[in-house]
Queue: 4 jobs
Job 1
Amino acid sequence: MTRFPEGPAASPGFLLWHVTLAWQRAVTAALQPLGLTHAQFVLLASAWWLSEQGEVPNQLRLARHAGTDVKMTSQIVRKLEEKKLLRREIDPADSRARRLRPTPAGRNLARRAIAAVESVDADFFGRHAPALTPLLQELADGR
């Protein structure tokens, strides 16, 4: 039995799934000309943001900030390093850890990609953004 006798269209989770897929398609299309996947964008933009705030995060800090799996983060960070968008440096406080710094090319690409994704967000969420943002923040915080 379902709590939604009207069908899946009355289920917030099912609707969120469809909205998420539509938004992800739009973001993917915007990032494609920049040569980034959505996950690469999230991690590069997060590394850029943290560095702009004066941090030199390690991979665990980056994963926590981005909300990504640590193992996946490591794989994507390696790809971003291959693309010369991030540098991994040994953490002086822990030789097993790697600190992450966006390269000049990475900082430039992060800024361009953020502008592209913010444009998608503005188009996609439009006039609903002011009402949606506090709700999404509350849901993301687990309240």
Job 2
Amino acid sequence: MTSRRDWLLQQMGITQYQLRRPRALQGEIAVRLTPGTKLIIVADIAPGLHEPLVRDVLHALGLQPAQVMALTPDQLQMLPESLDCAGWLIGIDGPHPFSAVALHSASLNELSSSGAAKRALWQQMCNHDSDLFPHP
């Protein structure tokens, strides 16, 4: 159902634009990719970088917390449409903007209690070791 205003604008040949990210204008703070970011962690509730499991994964990847950003899916949408750094999607399915490596894992609760989930994450890390692990 279109309003009279929309109908009149259409009759006059005036194109109306739709915002792709309307929440950006509703007072939400824009998210910027910090220089030196090598990994973006995406989860419904952004995990702390000092949680033991996250800290272990970062250590295995040879990354410092300063090289990592933890975001929610809504915050991820505010970043550029194509990201050159790696991503770790924790309990998130669907499209992502990572042009480099994107690791997918179960939620942190399931990951910390399930050996199979940890093995699946480690297998992904090994499959992309040339992209993820620092080599001298």
Job 3
Amino acid sequence: MSASRLLRNPGFAGLLVYRLLAMLSYQIVAVTVGWHVYEITRDPFALGLIGLTEVIPYFCFALFAGYAVDHLPRRKLGMFACLGLLLTTLMLAGVAAGVLPTGGFGFATLTIYAAIAINGVVRAFLSPVYMSLFARVLKREHFARGSGISSVVMQTGLVLGPALGGALVAWGGKTSAYLVAAGFALAGAIAIITLRVTEPPPQAERAPVFKSIGEGLRFVFNNQIVLGAQALDMFSVLFGGAVALLPAFIHDVLHYGPEALGVLRAAPAAGAVLMGLWLARHPPQKNSGRLLLYAVAGFGLCIIGFALSRSFWLSAAMLMLSGMCDGVSVVLRSTILQLSTPDEMRGRVSSINGIFIGSSNELGAFESGLMAKLMGLVPSVIFGGCMTLAVVGATAKLAPKLRRLDLRELQ
């Protein structure tokens, strides 16, 4: 089935709309709240606390969110998650508009951090709901093509959300930005609750929470293909991420101004969108495991090329190519998870995958800064790229089932 015919599937199209709306709401808030907190505090450390305030609740609730998705109506959970985003954006809009007390590092800032913490809990539900419903609106033989389309939608949200958030803050102010994000969250709630999809019947008996979570963990850690794909992504992002150091590269290596930051930050997402469009038309099937390993190795080589570049446009090209390689990895990993996971366990496996990805992004930024401090800016990024290549080699050796994987065998 072609990509255009898949998009005419009302269930799949509605699910993509839900994902895009929720992502736009989340991304607009992420951009606006950073500006908001710094405007109040003028303290860079307060910006660092934003990520920490969100990631701790996310990790605490992720496994329980996966359990809930596997045992409760998925559309209702998705609706409540979007309503949670709506609540937090209205709280933030209240602070920005002066409806709630403002000023200094006091009640206003604590209210902002409370909203961010709620966002962390909400985010724990968004991806498991999407991944579990994805398998209900598409047939197994369409998972690879559907994952390509899904990657395009996700990367489009990652590009448009921050850009829209920045424009709204600049032209309409923080309150307007938060209210627009609230509108997207409300629209996302409507999209998911009206989604045309059949859900599995409720189980007559539910396993105890911790026993059920343990089943999900055992499934992942006993499945060489699933564990290998998740570990490969986690460690490649952990060591190979250069985005956290972009301001330093622009200032110290490329000698450009702040206007260059937007271009370089958008370059990986633009590459991922282009690759997602290609894969939506030409879904990978043969030699899928080897292709995944080659894509992650290509990502590592692009990061090394970026570190060695002294040309702004060459650096942008390297980051775009890294995004294209990462786009292949995202599509293949998503397809592997969908095809390998039993329907009754999709929520838990998706939440575990979210922990892998979330930890790699957060810890990767910390690792990049630490290694840059110890080794210097350019050597640290070269080291990270080399470590990514080492991770690929180790995965190829330790996970032979993943290396020999052909997606046609899982369909």
Job 4
Amino acid sequence: MAEHTRSSIVIAATPAEVMAVIADFEAYPAWTGEVKEVEVLGRGEAGRATEVRLLLDAGAIRDEHVLAYTWDGDREVSWTLVKSQMLRSLDGSYALAPVAGGTEVTYQLAVDVKIPMLGMIKRKAEKVIIDRALAGLKKRVETP
């Protein structure tokens, strides 16, 4: 990933428990505010999604895109854009590492939109996306 934004959070769960929530795409509309619809288009040998269609609605931004996923056990998942109406590229990853008290989750994201946007504004938008996603993931994993 070229220019990217990154943030981390510690979640009180094992890497396997955190990755199970990340991998459960069908449940995203229940706990992520922006994802309204999900369709898993392909699965790998381990049963995890390799390609997913997501319908996003974040107020001013509404987009449907397809992402391709690569999994490294319960250590990391990365994705790249296959197609989108509004995005030129979207590359991201969740890296999970066991730490005292749970799992440190590091989310890295690089987005390039088709409309011109200042780099500073783009990075701020990436930061908002990352912070919301990490907070939502933490709540989903830690709430029984």
